[in-house]
């Protein structure tokens, strides 16, 4: 046994929610390579050899409950990767409320033991959530699946940006209470990443930051490049990291904040509500 083993998942069970495609699929495959037993929940068909596949519809509470019962425990790392774009019916449930309910059910069933971790995929669209924290606290205070979904719909916030901001606020707010249970929770906020969802919204999602990438000579991230930090945050190597939203955008936001790439400054200030 070596110190580097803290980065591995040997003997651990990893649940990837939304692991059939994109970043979730990359994370599921990476977890397998790191030694984990992998369970993938998704509405789409799961094709990863060796993984246990469980059908779930995050917009349906009964489907989530059944999936949690089928999964059982223990789960040492829960990766909340499922997400859909604006215009998708039930986006508020799929992107946030369903994930929250699934986590609540896993905790209530004692399926997340001490030392386990949760990793969300948020988005650069979720940045700047702090400016809306008072309102987001109302959402976080909703007690269940139905009331959370109703709040987002009634407030006109059943959209991609609002649900991603909700994830960031949830992760931050849960750092303390979950750590008392021995569970860490973090998120990544990816920049443009070449996934099927991004390809379906290519003009907006993959068009973002093309000037920055052109000048630095890079391409949009691959799903695997985003899976690396996501899995790290759920590893024992990240034991001191809790309640953060890690911006994994190849430095675009930082370059805009500091003005080292001036063309990114206006959008950085907009997204961060500065």
Question: What does this protein structure show overall?
Answer:
The protein is 44% helix and 13% strand. The protein contains 12 helices and 7 strands. Strand 1, helix 1 (22-33) and strand 2 form a beta-alpha-beta unit.
**Structural Rg:** 18 Å
Could you estimate the helical fraction of the residues in percent? 40-55%
**How big a fraction of the residues is strand?**
5-15%
**C-alpha geometry:** globular
The biggest sheet amounts to: 7 strands, parallel
Number of strands: 7
- Widest beta sheet: strand line-up: 3-2-1-4-5-6-7
Structural classification: alpha/beta
Q: How far apart are the termini?
A: 47 Å
Order of helices and strands: EHEEHEHEHHHEHHHHEHH
Q: Summarize model confidence as the mean pLDDT.
A: 95
Output the number of helix runs: 12
Task: Reconstruct the topology from this structure.
Elements: E1 13-17, H1 22-33, E2 37-42, E3 52-55, H2 61-71, E4 77-80, H3 91-108, E5 117-121, H4 133-140, H5 145-154, H6 160-179, E6 184-190, H7 196-200, H8 202-205, H9 210-216, H10 223-233, E7 245-248, H11 252-258, H12 265-271
Parallel strand pairs: 1-2, 1-4, 2-3, 4-5, 5-6, 6-7
Helix pairs in contact: 1-10, 2-3, 3-5, 3-6, 4-6, 11-12
């Amino acid at each position: 046994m070596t110190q580097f083993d803290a980065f591995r998942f040997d003997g651990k069970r990893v649940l990837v929610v939304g692991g059939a495609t994109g970043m979730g699929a990359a994370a599921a495959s990476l977890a397998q390579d790191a030694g984990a037993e992998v369970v993938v929940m998704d509405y789409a068909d799961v094709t990863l050899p060796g993984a246990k596949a469980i059908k779930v519809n995050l917009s349906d509470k009964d489907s989530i409950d059944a999936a949690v019962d089928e999964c059982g425990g223990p789960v040492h790392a829960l990766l909340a990767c499922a997400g859909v774009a604006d215009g998708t019916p039930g986006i508020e449930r799929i992107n946030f409320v369903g994930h929250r309910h699934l986590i609540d059910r896993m905790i209530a069933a004692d399926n997340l033991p001490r030392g386990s971790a949760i990793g969300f995929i948020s988005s650069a669209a979720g940045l700047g959530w702090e400016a809306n924290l008072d309102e987001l606290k109302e959402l976080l205070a909703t007690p269940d699946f139905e009331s959370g979904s109703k709040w987002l719909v009634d407030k006109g916030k059943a959209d991609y940006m609002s649900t991603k901001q909700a994830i960031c606020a949830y992760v931050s707010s849960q750092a303390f209470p979950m750590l008392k249970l021995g569970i860490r929770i973090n998120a990544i906020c990816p920049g443009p990443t070449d996934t099927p969802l991004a390809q379906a919204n290519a003009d907006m999602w993959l068009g973002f930051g093309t000037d920055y990438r052109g000048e630095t000579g890079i391409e949009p991230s691959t799903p695997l490049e985003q899976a690396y930090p996501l899995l790290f945050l759920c590893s024992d190597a990240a034991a001191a990291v809790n309640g953060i939203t890690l911006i994994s955008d190849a430095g675009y936001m930082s370059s805009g904040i500091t003005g080292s790439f001036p063309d990114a400054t206006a959008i950085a200030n907009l997204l961060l509500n500065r």
